[in-house]
Fold:
Amino acid sequence: MKGFTRPNLLDAFTRICTLADGQHGMFAIAQLRGEVTDQVLAQLRDAEIVEPVVDGVLRVRAGATHPHQTLYATWLLAEATPAWERSLTTLVVSHQTAAQLYGAGTASGSRIEFSGRARNTLPDNVTVFPRSVPEEQCTVVEGLPVTGPARTLADLADGQGFDLSDLGRLARSFISQGWTTAEQLGPELTEQFAGRDPAYDGPAWLESALAAAGRG
Structure:
């Protein structure tokens, strides 16, 4: 590691590892709060100790990996607060990206969708729906806050280009993977649809969606 100033290296790597250890091996440069210089980061990159994930987020190469690395890195960019100190509801994975995180959705290119607010500027391929998602409608998947199955289905039913059979296939996937049950999902959908026009009876809507999915 020729060219390293030893105290700078040790201090920088200690700080980086403290962040990365609780963030699936990743850290956002903004999270370092100026404690690690660009020069030291460049040296660590040149030595292949860290590597970029997305612009502004790096990964310790010997660290953990995340099954949705780009999504997690983009969520990290949203604010400088460490992942383990963030509120569940500040910025929540939602819509098609939520379905993909559950392993229930089809690919939508590089688009990423969140609900809530981001304190920092995010890439152009990110959509943030400026709304609050109640904590009881959120859960955590792979360390990421995400809208629950009922909220995700209701969001995708709201002018997102999904027909009833598409939604039925998503619901079937949620159920078959054990994220929810039909008995739980139906009443939760009633709550989600309550403020809409028309409002749907959740169990009846779910039955119709699953039937439509079964017809192809």
Summary: The first helix runs from residue 6 to 21.
